[in-house]
Design brief:
Oligomer: single chain
Number of helices: 12
Distance between the termini: 34 Å
Shape: globular
Number of strands: 36
Bound molecules: alpha-D-galactopyranose
């Protein structure tokens, strides 16, 4: 890993584990992008520049007029419109999507951001109030506009243990008057062609993160959220797969935005055949007043690269998130195996029922009982109670203590559900402080699940939430918290903001959320937090910074989960996905899958159980005990292993994930067949990621086979008859 600056050409070379990222400041000071890809020699990178540009009335900045012959002799393109950029800006002949748009006090929107100086830092600075990666070596390039004094600092970090570049921008008002940022994206990445397919993750409740494939073209393709949440609709992720590539070969780039509010990611194909990828905070309904001397920090983006296709790109992403972003206390630590009561009881429980559910699984290896929604305030359904974080002693005689003591007596830990950012109209806190709910005076608020959003852009509202939640934590022995978020914003208005700052709402919501996390999650380091949002509607890297795992989806059907977990894995590691074995017929799909299938699919993540175990037979208990034992034996693969997506359930009848330890000493292959066909043809599947030269014992077959045989000849799983079946193979080096 190294960041090298060549003074003579003003070129920056960022060299990571297997990657090179290079750009230079040209004669005028404009940052020209040179290269991003597999690590290559520094010698010939200027060869990547080309003078052949398709254009239409190119506009030159003064002093760069081609007709006057004073063009940089080494280059053809002198109009910003045709220079591969590190940051794009509007009004100086660049008609591409700008990375930043500033409205100056005089009303003009010009800024020409040119190289001023740079620093190379050994310690990566944190972003103020927002999550970001740690470690690596960081380059900060200072750019500024010499007329207005407006500036941008571009941050680049490289790592020696993962193939990613972390990027972000900080915008600075160095002028004497207030300016308005109407767009403040985090980055722009130039690609030399349009020969890529963009892969984005679209979805909805119970159907999150389905990969969607869109070839790049002239013009813009984009995904965004306007929900003040990263949302289940579009994930803040975009992959770019180079022409001819696939899951296991070819160049792939991953863009992961570390942000939980309204975002946008765009790929713009230009007239000259090149592409710019850019994005960050959604500039829809965004505007930020920047007073003289003030700075605006943008969220970080993690840009991964692989020449081993989408699989390699995902592995680079997973390593980056696990090594440098996800809460260190838990990133690679064995996770609690929970029994959650939600699908088992919904709101209908009392002490006895909860204790029976816990007792039934004592001794199976399930180690944490999680009490879900319904324990507080007046909450027997979803009509009331949110915001009143006081135990409902009518329902739970003796408070939480009775259940907690019982759970502890079984040798298990205790977990609790909260939805800190929400408030019901029918709650004591709303009756006392109706203004705590987001809304515009004189207008009715929109309801979602009968609840409103707390205005966490306000410090006093955050203080109330922090104190209310932390009091429950102080008064009880809690080891685990599920932090839910079951609606999106509406009204987008805060009583605490001046009229000319209301468009700051969605970003301030994210900052408010992160402040809550600092004061609740970071203040309680002994508690493991799980994120949730009506399933997986806020599944993003920033949430993972605080919560090492997120409830992947309210859809717990094993069949549908193969689709959801497949899509989610493009961006996120398996350890980030909370996956439970639940009731059958499944509550979302009415499908019946065997206990084995449900467990095998739930084992491809942070596993747990969510059903009424109080009705378990001895046979059920024995099955759970065996499953937990099996999971524990391979949990390191979920936490730290490399993932190979062997079969894609979105395109065929099978789904298969192979997990391999970094040292290739052991692995596991889970194969799932959706529909059984009578007298079907032989199905073969090849293992991936093993060491060709090593020998592996396969306990399911009772034989030792070479890594080469396993990967070149493969296996022929026998699923037996019936739909929705799984076969699992383990590989142990001999
Ligand atoms: C959301 C979550 C569920 C459950 C309920 C409780 O829908 O995704 O897992 O916690 O809320 O109301």
């Amino acid at each position: 890993m190294a960041i090298i600056f060549d003074k003579s050409t003003k070129t920056f070379y960022l060299e990571g584990k297997n990657i090179t990222y290079a750009f230079f400041a040209n004669r005028r000071g404009y940052l020209e992008h040179l290269y991003f890809g597999e690590k290559i020699s520094r010698d010939h990178l200027f060869y990547t520049r080309t003078s052949i540009r398709r254009n239409a009335f190119p506009a030159m900045v003064p002093g760069e007029d081609v007709t006057k012959g004073n063009v940089d002799p080494s280059v053809g393109p002198t109009s910003y419109n045709h220079i591969p950029a590190e940051i794009t800006f509007f009004g100086n002949g660049d008609y591409r999507e700008p990375t930043v748009q500033v409205e100056n006090a005089g009303g003009d929107r010009l800024c020409e951001l040119l190289y001023y100086s740079h620093e190379i830092l050994d310690t990566k600075p944190k972003i103020n109030g927002m999550p970001s990666m740690d470690g690596g070596e960081t380059l900060v390039v200072h750019l500024y506009d010499s007329i207005s004094g407006f500036g941008a600092d571009l941050y680049y970090t490289v790592y020696d243990d993962c193939d990613v570049i972390a990027r972000r921008a900080v915008y600075k008002n160095g002028g004497a008057e207030c300016v308005r940022l109407n767009r403040a994206y985090s980055f722009a990445l130039s690609l030399p062609t349009q020969s890529y397919t963009a892969i984005t993750l679209e979805g909805a409740w119970a159907d999150e993160r389905t990969p969607e494939y869109t070839p790049l073209r002239h013009g813009i393709i984009s995904v965004d959220s306007k929900y003040a949440s990263s949302s289940s609709i579009n994930n803040p992720f975009m992959a770019l797969l180079a022409k001819g590539g696939g899951e296991n070969f070819g160049e792939a780039i991953g863009i992961n935005l570390v942000y939980s509010s309204s975002f946008v990611l765009k790929a713009e194909g230009h007239s000259d055949g090149t592409t710019t990828i850019l994005g960050g905070i959604n500039d829809f309904d965004f505007s930020w007043k920047l007073d003289a001397g003030e700075e605006f920090e943008t969220p970080e983006v993690i840009i991964s690269y692989s020449n081993e296709g989408l699989g390699g790109m995902s592995r680079a992403n997973h390593d980056a998130l696990r090594n440098h972003l996800i809460n260190k206390r838990y990133a690679k630590k064995s996770r609690p195996i929970v029994i959650n009561n939600w699908e088992g009881t919904y709101f209908n429980f009392n002490n006895e029922k909860l204790m029976d559910i816990a007792s039934a699984v004592a001794g199976t290896g399930i180690d944490t009982f999680v009490l879900d929604d319904g324990w507080f305030g007046k909450r027997d359904d979803d009509l009331s109670g949110l915001g009143d974080w006081v135990v409902n002693t009518k329902k739970l005689d003796g408070g939480l203590k009775t259940v907690i003591d019982h759970v502890h007596s079984l040798g298990m830990k205790f977990g609790l559900w909260f939805e800190p950012e929400m408030i019901n109209e029918d709650s004591d806190i709303f009756r006392a402080h109706p203004d705590y709910a987001v809304g515009v005076p004189g207008r009715e608020r929109c309801y979602t699940r009968h609840q409103f959003l707390m205005d966490v852009t306000r410090a006093d509202v955050r203080d109330y939430i922090v104190e209310a939640v932390n009091k429950v934590i102080r008064d009880n022995e809690i080891d685990y918290i599920k932090w839910d978020f079951n609606r999106n914003a509406t009204e987008f208005f805060s009583l605490s903001l001046d009229a000319d700052r209301q468009k700051e709402f969605s970003h301030r919501y994210a900052l408010g959320l992160y402040d809550l996390c600092e004061r609740i999650v970071e203040a309680n380091p002994g508690i493991m937090f799980e994120g949730c949002s009506g399933g997986g509607a806020r599944f993003d890297p920033a949430i993972l910074y605080y919560f090492p795992q997120i409830w992947t989806s309210d859809n717990t059907d094993a069949e549908n989960r193969t689709l959801i977990q497949y899509g989610t894995s493009l961006a996120y590691p398996l350890s980030a996905m909370s996956c439970h074995v639940s009731e059958v017929p499944n509550h979302q799909t009415s499908r019946i899958a065997s206990m084995k299938t449900r467990a095998d699919i739930a084992h491809l993540g942070a596993t747990g159980y969510e059903l009424d175990t109080s009705v378990f037979t001895d046979e059920d208990k024995a099955a759970v005990k065996a499953q937990v034992k099996e999971y524990k034996a391979m949990e390191d693969l979920v936490l730290e292993g490399d993932l190979y997506r062997v079969e894609n359930p979105h395109t065929g009848n099978h789904f298969a994930f192979m997990l391999v330890s970094k040292d290739k000493s052991h692995g596991m292959l889970t194969v799932y067949r959706r529909i059984f066909k009578a007298n079907e043809a032989v199905y073969r599947i090849k293992a991936m990621g093993l060491d060709k030269k090593k020998k592996y014992y396969v306990p399911e077959l009772g034989i030792i086979l070479g890594g080469d045989t396993l990967m070149s000849v493969g296996l022929a799983p026998d699923f037996g008859p019936g739909d929705f079946s799984t076969v699992v193979y383990h590989f142990e080096e001999k």
